[in-house]
Amino acid sequence: MLKYTLRRLLGMIPMLLLISIVVFSLAMFMPGDPLGGEIDPTNSDPEYIEEMREKLGYNDPIHVQYWTWVTNFVQGDFGKSTQYKVQVSELVKSRMLNTLFLGISSIVITYIFAFAMGMTAGRKAYSKLDHFIGGLNYFGLAVPNYIAGVVIIYFFSFKLGWIPFGGSHEIGLQPGTLEYWISRFHHVLAPAIVLGALSTASYTQFLRNDIIESSRKDFVRTARAKGTSESKIYNSHILRNSVIPLITFLGFDIVTIVNGAVITEAIFTYPGIGTLFLNSVNNRDYSVLMTLTMFFSLLVLIGNLVADLLYGIVDPRIRID
Amino acid sequence: MSEHTKENKGPLLEVKNLETAFPIDGEYYNAVDDVSFTVDRGKIVGVVGESGCGKSVMSLSIMHLLPKGIGKIKGGQILLDGKDITNYNDKEMNKIRGKDISMIFQEPMTALNPVFTIGFQLEEVLFNHFKISKKEARQKSISLLRSVGISRSEDVVEEYPHQLSGGMRQRVMIAMAIACQPQLLIADEPTTALDVTVQAQILDLLKEVQSINDMAIVLITHDLGVVAEMCDDVIVMYAGEIVEKTSVEELFENPKHPYTEKLIDSIPKMGVKQDRLGSIPGIVPSLKNMPRVGCKFADRCPRAMPECTTITPLLGEVKDGHEVSCILYDESRPKERANA
């Protein structure tokens, strides 16, 4: 397994190089450049601007610019945000904690709901309860999260005042205290539910369908013939088989933890990576934009690797030596 | 081994007028129609018939393993060791399934759960019925695997089904089935999916475990060769009904029902040069198109008479312990007609 992992990690290098070329090209094709953020806005002398362009390297040939970026990037120098005037790494670090917190909360919520609903619906297939859960899920799938977000804010924050409008915690609380963490949970709850609704729905239906299919397999009949109780058949024999295809989703989830929240974070004005990403697009903050895109790509690759390794753990037939 | 064995001196399994039905377009049709037979302790009873004759449905009915919400027992009685288990619910059945009756299936490739080790699946049946420790269960399962002829059983308990061959898996299934020393084993075409050489080994194994544990076996097969080799008594089924019931010697020496005759005809004979094996034209009629009156075999029967489509034959005893359902024999004609 270690050898396999190492081989996969090595295989990522050429992949990342290709991705970096794409990311760099896309940034080049975007209209405008971040020059505006780098120079003294009060000085509009064309000579000064030209001088700054030369100094900042905007006049270098493209391959030189690419090379400069890549070499700096691999050395951990992601550049400076033209918008916030701080190192990109600093910026990402400060937002990452919030996003991770949101992403993990959302996934925990997703898993709890999806497994509870999916297992019930699969076991009581075609019953009223199953149809109800199905209806709920299709509703969850059908409502876009920006609408769900706005509706939730309107009712629960504006009308009822149960949840805060935005932010990640109350201002003025000492980090690390109990109040601070309660406040964080309070702030993350609504965006986490909205963020998780979509994947909860797909997880649930997927799990339900797979449970129905597995329950018709021969090994279920064998288990019954052994005198195994119905709940044990469902919770162990069938579930263990039905979890295998769900692993594919888990690979995507790892990416979702970090970047799936772009829209949701924006609606709830939650200060995470998603909001940062959106802002950097709007303000042509190239160094942030490119760093984040590279980071997301890396996560996709890692997510896939983790999923592949997990397959081997849950399914002995594809166990990797 | 079971508490209630001492009391009951009657047959181990008694099936009386069993009817199992499946719904087609909202109406129930009998896949097993008025089937009665008994299985004595320590005996092997063969159930033969071609595909679709209801032999698997019958065995699943006894185990209460019919597909949920689809097939159902409509009438009749199933008595195991004198106890009526016909209306047992899942919980009651779970107490006897695997312990008093167990079953092995046709497809060893899919009958085991692919994600659990052999040991886990074997020990499960022990945990279901006995209070034993993990260690004891592991030891027991290793010795069970050895008793079904798996030599490296210490390794096999840690392995997964996909690492074993079809024959090995069927051995594992047998080990599972005999783990709690049941009185009755139902084997539903246990060798059909296996290579010919492996078939013989599995049959030998079944015979061996049968004699060691003194259990009764209901052996479902479409292979008369298997019946000849293994069974004490034979039941021939056609279209959900029993058409002939007798001892194995009598069946081969003196088959009565035209269907049985044709079945025996279709086995190649040693030392006889045959151009073509005998075959029976047509197939078993589907449930929906089953004739309601008359003999169900009539339109495929080489000896059919006009009466066959109007008189429904009954199972009648033509000779000591030899019952047949065909109006060629007076014993099979319904009484009022026979008297008339």
Describe the structure in brief.
Chain A: The chain crosses the membrane at residues 9-30, 100-120, 132-156, 188-207, 243-268, 288-314. Chain A: Belongs to the binding-protein-dependent transport system permease family. The complex is a heterodimer of chains A (321) and B (340). Chain A has 321 residues and is mainly alpha-helical.
Index terms:
heterodimer; A: 321 residues; mainly alpha; MetI-like fold; 2 domains; globular; B: 340 residues; alpha/beta; eight-stranded mixed sheet; 12 strands; disordered N terminus
CATH-defined architecture of the largest domain in chain A: Orthogonal Bundle
The greatest interface between two protein chains, and residues involved on each side, is: A-B, 22 and 33 residues
**Which residues of chain B sit in consecutive blocks of at least 5 with pLDDT less than 50?**
1-5
Supply the CATH superfamily name of the largest domain in chain A.
Answer: MetI-like
Query: How many helical elements of chain B?
Result: 12
Overall mean pLDDT of chain B: 89
CATH topology of the largest domain in chain A: MetI-like fold
Report the major sheet of chain A.
Answer: none
What is the total tally of β strands of chain B? 12
Average pLDDT, all residues of chain A: 86
* Global geometry of chain B: globular
Number of strands of chain A: 0
> Oligomeric form of this entry?
heterodimer
Q: Give the class-level CATH name of the largest domain in chain A.
A: Mainly Alpha
* Tally of helical segments of chain A: 13
Outline of chain A: globular
Distance between the termini of chain A: 5 Å
Kindly state the percentage of residues in helix of chain A: over 70%
SS-derived structural category of chain B: alpha/beta
Order of helices and strands of chain A: HHHHHHHHHHHHH
Helix content of chain B: 25-40%
Protein name (chain A): ABC transporter permease
Keywords (chain A): Cell membrane, Membrane, Transmembrane, Transmembrane helix, Transport
Domain ABC transmembrane type-1 (chain A): 96-307
Family (chain A): Belongs to the binding-protein-dependent transport system permease family.
